[in-house]
Each structure stands twice: as C-alpha cells, then as structure tokens.
Amino acid sequence: MEQNTAPYREHNRTSLTKEKLKQGFLDNLYFIQGKFPTLASRNDYYLALAYTIRDRMLHRWISTATNYYESGARTVCYLSAEFLMGPHLGNNLVNMGIFGMVKEVVEELGLNFEELLAQEEEPGLGNGGLGRLAACFIDSLATLEIPALGYGIRYEFGIFEQTIVDGWQMEKTDKWLRNGNPWEVPRPEWAQEVRLGGHTEQYTDENGRLRVRWVPAKIVLGIPYDTPILGYRTNTANTLRLWKSEAPESFDFEVFNRGDYYGAVDQKVTSENISKVLYPNDEQLSGKQLRLEQQYFFVSCSLRDMLRVLAIQNIPLSRFHEKFAVQLNDTHPAIAVAELMRLLLDEYLVDWDDAWEITQRTFAYTNHTLLPEALEQWPLPLFASVLPRHLEIIFEINSRFLDEVRIKFLGDEARLARLSLINEGGERYVRMAHLACVGSHAINGVAELHSELLKQDVLKDFYELWPEKFRNKTNGVTPRRWMILSNPSLASLVSDRIGNGWVRDLEQLRQLEPMADDADFRKEWWDVKRANKVAFAQYIFKRTGILVDPESMFDFQVKRIHEYKRQHLNVLHIISLYRRLKENPNLEVPPRTFLFGGKAAPGYHTAKRMIKLITSVGEVINRDPDIRDRIKVVFVPNFNVTTGQKIYPAADLSEQISTAGKEASGTGNMKFSMNGALTIGTLDGANVEIREEVGAENFFLFGLTADEVYALRASGYHPYDYYNTNPHLKDVIDLLRGGSFSRGDADLFRGLTDGLLHHDPYLLFADFQSYVDCQEEVSRAYLDRDHWTRMSILNAVRSGKFSSDRSIRQYCEDIWKAEPVPITLLGQNEEPT
Length: 833
Ligand code: CR1
Hints:
Largest sheet: 10 strands, mixed
Helix content: 40-55%
Radius of gyration: 28 Å
Number of domains: 3
Bound molecules: N-(methoxycarbonyl)-beta-D-glucopyranosylamine
C-alpha cells in the first residue's frame, strides 16, 4: 500500500512546537487516561506526558525501521540477560533536544515537572555494572546511528527494592509495571515458540539421511515487547526487544476436557514463570533450572527473530553472519552458540561445517569477571533435562574442538581436560565460558588490565590456542544520562565555555583544561558542586533522617556489596579515624561524610552483614558528641539508576578500593570522575586507565598491584601477622571484637573479624596501612580548596576516553564491522531537529 507519510510530521501528536506539545499532552490525558485535570493523579499526568513524548518518538522509530529494512544494513544484536535502563522520560527529552521546552510546557500548565519525572518507576532489569553497561551501549549505538537491537528478558519483577530496617537490608519485590509502562509496544504478531525438556529421536529424511528430532516436554511462547531507544539528536530510534513468556494457549484444552481445570491453569502459570523475576545475584552463579530456562528462552526467541528478519529481507541463510553481528554479554546468552547450530542443523538442514562457520562468524563474546564463583557451569543432568538436543550438539562441538587441540598440542592431555567444554573433575558440568570462546570469532575483556589477566589466567589456554581472537574493549558510560541529565548545572557551565559538541565527542572536554587555572571558573565549578551537595543533603535527610553538612567532604562508595569490593576496608578506615579524633580532638582533618550505597544479594550473608556493619558504625559515630559532626556515616538505601543520578554529581571523593585483579572494569568509577569527583583507588580494572588519563597527581593511589597480590598469595599470606604488628589495625579490630559498635554484642561481627584474621581472601589487612595513609593525603588535599577544585576540573575534562561512544566505536570497527546508517525521516528530507 502506497502511503503519504508527510502529514505525520505536523500532526498534533508529532509536532515539536510548544503549542502542539501542550495540546498533545491534554489530549492524552483525556483520550488515554480518560481524565480531566480536576480528577487526574500525578501518575495520570506522568503517563499523559510520557505518551506525548512517545508519540514524538514514533515517527523516528518507524522511519528508522523503514530505512533499515530498505538498506538491508548489517545489524548489531546485543544479547544480554540484563538491561538496567533507568527512567526513560528525562533521557528521551534530553536525546530529542526538547528537555527545556517540555519543562516550560508542563510548568505553564501549573504542574511540577520534577515531580512528574520522579513519578516514573525505573525499569531495574539488571543487577549492577553489567546490566547498566548494556543500557549505556544501546544509547551509544543509537547516537552513532548504528543499526542495532538489544535483546533481553522482560522481567515482571526487576531487581528488588532495598529498605533498611534496624540496620539490616530488607528486600521488597519490584513491581515496576504496576502503573503501566508507556514506553513499550507489545508485538504479539512476532511471538516465537520455545521448546523445553523432553528427549531426542533419530529419523531418516526423504533423502535417506540420518537426522535428529527434538521432542520437547513443553512449549512456551515468547512475546516481544519493544521499546524505542533514541540517539542523541539524531533521527535514529533503535529497538530494545524484551521477551515475555506466556503459555501457548490460555488453556490446555486436552487437560481441561479431562476435567483437570487446575492442571490446565497450572501449566499457564509455569510458562509465565520463566520471565517472572530477575535473579538478584551479581557475580555469582545461581545454578537454578529456571535460570537456565530464562537464558535459553530469550536466546532462542532472539535468534528465531533474526531468522524471521532474514526471511522478510530475502537474504539467504548462508549470509546470516553478514547480516547480523551478535554480541554475547557475558556467558548468560552463551547457549546461543548451540541454539544457532541446532536451528541450522535440525530446522534448516544445513551441513555441520557450513553451520559451524556461520555460527563462529556471527558471535563475539565479552567476559565481565575474573571471579571463579561467577563463571557459569551447568550440571550435566540438569542441562540434559532442559536442553537434551543442545547437550548432544555441545558434545559434538567438543569432540571436534578437542581433535583440533590434540593436533596442535600433541600429547598434552592435561591441556585437553582444561580446555574441554565439559568439566569432568568429579560431578560433570557444561562450561559456558568455554562454549562462548569456541563459538565466537572475538573474545574481549572490559578494561586493559582485565583483558591482560584473561590472557594470563582465566582464559590462558584459549589464548595460547587462538591469540588472534583476543582483544580489549575498555568500558564506557553515556554522557547523556550521566552528565547532561543528572548534572545539568555542570553541563551548562561546560557548554557555556565550549559549546555542546562535547556531548557526542567527549574528548572535546579537554578544551577546558586551561580553565583549571582560572580562579573565576574554579569558583563557578565549586559552586555547582556545592549546590549539588546541598540538594543531596536534603535528599539524605528525607530518606534517612540524618543531617549532613554540605560543607563536609562527600565521600562515596556506591556499588553492589561484595567482599572483593571491600566496603569493609572503608569501614576499618572510618573506625581508625574515629579513634584518632577521639584521642586528639585537635586533629586537623576536614569534616567528612562517608556515604555508602548498594544492594547485597539476598542469599549472600556476609554481604548483608557488611551492610549491618556500616549502619552500626554509623549509629555510634553519628551520635557521639565528641565528634561534633566532624564525621558522619550514612547508608543511602536502594542504590539504583535514579539515586545514582543524584549521587555522582554530589561527590567529592570516589572510593574504588577493590583488591587489585578482582574488579574487571568498574563503570561507577567513570561516572564519578566525569562529574568532578577525585578517586581514591587501587590499580584495578579501569582505575588504571582513569589514572593514566587524569594524571597520577590528580588520583589517590594505594595498595598492592595485581602482581603483588599474586606474589603475596603465592608466598603465603598471613593476615594475623598484620594484626599483631600494626597497633592501629589491632585497635580497630579489637574495638569491633569487643562489641563497641554492636551495643556490647561481641558476636555480631565475629564472623567478619574472624574471617579477616584467619583468611582475609581479599587482603584487607595487607592494604590497610597504605589505605589509611592515602586517606590522610586526601584529607590534607581537601583543606586546600583551590587545589582540590583544580584537580576536580582536570578529572572531569580528562575523562573523554570513558564515553561509551568510544567503546562502541571500537566494537564497531574491530569486532562488529558495522557502519552507521543515517536515518531520513519519512515524508521529508530535512535535518534532524
Ligand atoms: C564487573 O564486575 C564491570 C561490569 C561491566 C561486572 C564490573 O567490573 O564494570 O561487569 N561483571 O563490564 C559482572 O557483573 C557478571 O559479571
């Protein structure tokens, strides 16, 4: 059907004039919410506004889809079990370039714009860094005009909401969909069937060839829910496609007719379970059958969706890998390697060798962790019961792979066992990282140090086999959300001086370097930070009832709670400073507010106790009249994207204190630095590169290096010796053991202190003195406000490398071979607004 799309441009629902925006908003309140202003709730207003913005995104979205369809361009498919998007409304306004205009429209209608933005429940479909990285990446892909789709799971419950009760973490379910989600569009017409369980059979096809058929025990439907992802001031609107599981029919009539009504409904319920809830473990495998089903579910739906697109574009199957570059975001989607093989072999009857070539040329794998407890392995019996056909295929991949290894490393049986896709030591497991490595043409780590350590350690044998597959892609974060949206005053201070080209090309911030020497600029810079701190202090008071002084240094450690991230090292320093202040009230240190935020996996008991440790130490110090507000300790509840947007702009100091060699990259470290916080950190993950960029003199370094950590462990590490020889450390540990921070209950933190004294796997004691000394240096530096501000400016303006635009450009050039496809809006040939 021919159609004239031009009218959509000036339609009430698409036009970007103030008048039409206002009219659109009132129309949506009336026609979608069915409300008149007198009866409308804040949520009605939020939804009406969201729909008004969505209306204006649709033209770009439809134009983008049409352009891609016609160009047949190479498409990046980013497969990720997590997308931690954060609220959409503000970001869409920023990327469309209408934030200020819409604010005015809303305020002219007598409404509070900030309140409407705050009304959006954030889609927390991720745990931490890995999921947020995926979100930054799809923002950058759209901004760079790369044809791309994000594929994942539409969890009904995202990451739990954290509350603090009596100093302990409590979890509440995240009902993010309860008020409706205006940003998604369901596409039931593109539903996919996914098989699970059952067994396989051999049969002979009409040409007399032996083939395999999978007879599943159950089938579930995957329904795609699409969300448009705008590029920053481009016409591009890419798609985030998340799959929801459903039963194929609302009732199984066979069961129903047998009179088993409950049995029939039960089947529906179990099908819907697959996309019900995000597993809240960060860097720890859960080993649950439902988790494997989730992984397979979204991977199978996504690959079938790609095959659907290939068919409508009339592209032959043999060119699958030319049409699609598929990135595996960690091992969670690694089953895709076996699934694409199965689809090609069993459903499209492609020969093994051809299928394997397509598969290897399609996939690339990003590793995100060096922690052994996070490397996914599935027990063979469990795997066989969920994916019997895939296990056969994996065995076949493995046997061909090991033949190749045997030839290359003649007689090296130990190496074969190490490389095998099957872990045969004791109980047998499928090693998902090995499947990902074998099935991909590229393997990357997420910071230079991490990529090196992969080659030396976790993936050493694969590196020796295929050195050409290995590369580094240092992470990045989007300056749209993490600067413009969260820190508008800093962004306008910057744009006033150098224009706004930096938003797409963050290296341009370097033009501001000379301004670090300009006293007026430094004053403005300090004032912006100060105003952000005042706003955050008010937020803290509202959330926790704790009063903090915006004049004090705001020292943040926000990230998932984990022993390797060492929030408890931070606490040991706080106790030692507290001790010294009590002994010597004249100690010359600037007032400091120590702020923590982060969730603990509900089953990770040590992490939960670390939260209790922070809140308990806070309770004592915050009330101690001797301290007179010179130090405060605050646990900010429910750290997520929304609270992060308030935190990074208000930070003076960023704590990045993991044991060297443990944090793959970190991305919060980048957000802090970009917003002018100084870092105290170890040489771990991307800290190494941040220090390189901002200059060693603008970074507070402490602790052992990854090599030293390795050497110390090899020579035998005895934490008790540090306790015995360092009186300050002994003092701190003894206070904890004596119950000073637990109302005399000597048992409350015994597990933690005993663990440190006798094992200390993350070497807190080895780094303690170096950390305390470095913190003293931080305190001294903060007393010189001028110099501190200079360092703050240099941190921000030298953080250009850490834009996710740079990361994505490198992925495109080096791994995906993907090129931009600028979008012409339908019905016109003009430039984007
Ligand atoms: C890493 O721990 C990194 C992010 C994103 C995390 C963190 O250092 O910045 O990935 N890994 O690459 C992870 O969640 C499951 O592994």
